[in-house]
Amino acid sequence: MTHSFRAALAATVVVYSLTLSAQAHAQAFYLQEQSARAAGRAFSGEVADTGAASLWWNPAAIADTNEREVTISAAAILPRGRVVDQGTLIRRPGQPFAPVGGDGVSRNPINNGVLPSGAIALPLTNRIAVGLAVTSPYSFTTDYDDDSWARYSADRTKLRTIDIQPSLGIALTDWLRVGGAVNVEYTDASLSNKLPNLSAALHDGEQRLAGDGWDLGWTAGVQLHHQWAIVGIAYKSAIEHHLKGELETSGLAGPLAASNRTVSDARASFYTPAQIIVGGRFRASDALTLNTQVVRYTWSKFDAIRLGAPINTAIPENYRDSWSLAGGVDYAVSPAVTLRAGVQHAITPTRNGDRDARVPDSDRWNYGAGATFKLTSGLSIDAAANYVDFKDATIDRITAAYAGTAVQTPIVTDGSLKDAHAVVLSLGARLTF
């Protein structure tokens, strides 16, 4: 088997493995559940709120902190849905198109998970504060059965990120607050998919990839304070992620058997998007606050997965820029109890014609309700529940195993995402001292 053929095989496998996306709850593979307080109003006013709980969205949120504050949250994410084959075909070399075979309905391929987060804010003076937020903005696990119809583009994917955000907030005047932060992000991925042998009578081969890496981004924000309103604007930079790890190919037979090997220095890079966040909180009465927030995501940065030596190629992903819009309310029933509710609508960055089973993403509505219970002068408990309803969508990305070689094997995907939804239960605590 020639070197170019082996390289093409490896490239095909890495393409399948490194599509680091899945149905989530904000945009594509971004998880926004970084605060139980925020979840209660469907993430509708975070860029304009104050305190450590809003640090992920806007470092200016801690500029007026006059007490030390610690907040922790955890969100249990419970997704449900079906990924259904509607006639996917495969054409092996020298053979006509044939059904891909396997189980035609994959139920609940995205695993349940718990997403933790936390932040701390410390005042240095009455106008300057430092803070630290630790979050996991891109984390999920998908697990398709070995005989799923989607096995050639998605088998098992496990992605974990840890974002460490040291921040500085400054109150320049009584009405103007600014903030800046560095995002130090660790990414760890373990990914696999099946590979078709040249004969349908043979068991599938398999590709497994494990890799990790550290990367940097930044966040900047501003808040404008008025007696009855706060307006916040923030920018979170795109981050270019670099993964280095091991790529293992096994189970290939016949002419493909020479490609069973382990590459100990596999590399890939891709971008996660920038976010432009604009929002406001408006005090309608002593008890009622109205919230709104718009986020623009530059998902077009995720245009390709770039593979390093010895493959040296780029695989198009063709994501588009997208947005979310949210509105919500806070209502102080008493000094000890605040109720919240909100709704958010988000547009998927995936496109028809480019969506595969590893990325069963679609437009969605997020409905949230929650409350804060002030137990003591310094301790509050936040609780929230969200229901996320995903629109049915096509899964229709055409791929090819061993592309560009004599044994190129096209896979014409024809499937759909159906009846997808998620329940998210969040609980958090805030302590000032």
UniProtKB/TrEMBL annotation:
Domain of life per record? Bacteria
Subcellular location field: Cell outer membrane
| The UniProt record lists the keyword Transmembrane | yes
Q: Which InterPro entries match?
A: OMPP1/FadL/TodX
* Keywords tagged on the record: Cell outer membrane, Membrane, Receptor, Signal, Transmembrane, Transmembrane beta strand
Signal peptide from the UniProt entry: 1-26
Against Gene3D superfamilies, the record matches this protein to: Outer membrane protein transport protein (OMPP1/FadL/TodX) (2.40.160.60)
Q: Report the membrane topology from the UniProt record.
A: Multi-pass membrane protein
For this chain, the family text in UniProt reads: Belongs to the OmpP1/FadL family.
In Swiss-Prot or TrEMBL terms, this protein is called TonB-dependent receptor
